[in-house]
Amino acid sequence: MSYAPGPASNVGSSQVIYQQVVRAPSNGIATAALVLGIVAIVLGVWMVIPFVGLFFAFISFVPAVLGVVFGVLGLRQASRIAVGRGAAITGLVTGGLTLAIGASVTLFWIFALAASAASQSSGA
After folding, report:
1. Residue 118 sits in which domain range?
2. Is residue 67 one of the residues assigned to a domain?
3. Which domain of life is it from (predicted)?
4. Is residue 24 part of a domain?
């Protein structure tokens, strides 16, 4: 069963309609800070394990620093386009937390090795 087109239909017309797509603003720098901060904290929690932690301290340092840098840049961009503030803050916090863990673990091992050397030299 077929229906005949009525007088108001556009069957047979070759009219092309263009539609402009408007993209929502995005903050890729804030997203990069978030991803790098998460990678840094996942690698950074392994720093507290002796011997293995030294390897992870070096590995997690780069994404932590980049997470902090991109977090600051993402916050600047978020103030202009009003998108990505939470991701930038999260990247900044996780990167900074990883750097703090790394600094505290490094200081702990320096003091522990110094105390060990001092106790061995005075005891012999």
Report:
1. 86-123
2. no
3. Bacteria
4. no
Q: What amino acid occupies position 110? A: I
The pLDDT profile of the chain, 124 residues, written as one tens digit per residue, is 666 555 555 556 678 888 888 888 899 999 999 999 999 999 999 988 888 888 898 899 999 999 999 999 999 999 999 899 999 999 999 999 999 999 999 899 889 889 989 888 775 5
Q: Would residue 90 count as lying in a domain?
A: yes
Q: Which residues of 34-69 are buried (b: 16+ CB within 10 A; e: fewer)?
A: bbbbbbbbebbeebeeeeebeebbebbbebbbbbbb
Residue 5 domain-assigned (yes or no): no
Enumerate residues 6+ apart whose C-beta is below 8 A from 33. Answer: 66, 67, 68, 69, 70, 71, 73, 74, 87, 88, 90, 91, 92, 95
Whether the Cβ atoms of residue 19 and residue 73 lie closer than 8 Å to each other = no
Per the CB < 8 A criterion, the answer to whether 29 and 77 are in contact is yes
Cβ neighbors of 85 (< 8 A, separation 6 or more) are: 30, 75, 78, 79
pTM of model > 0.85: no
Number of domains into which the chain is organized: 1
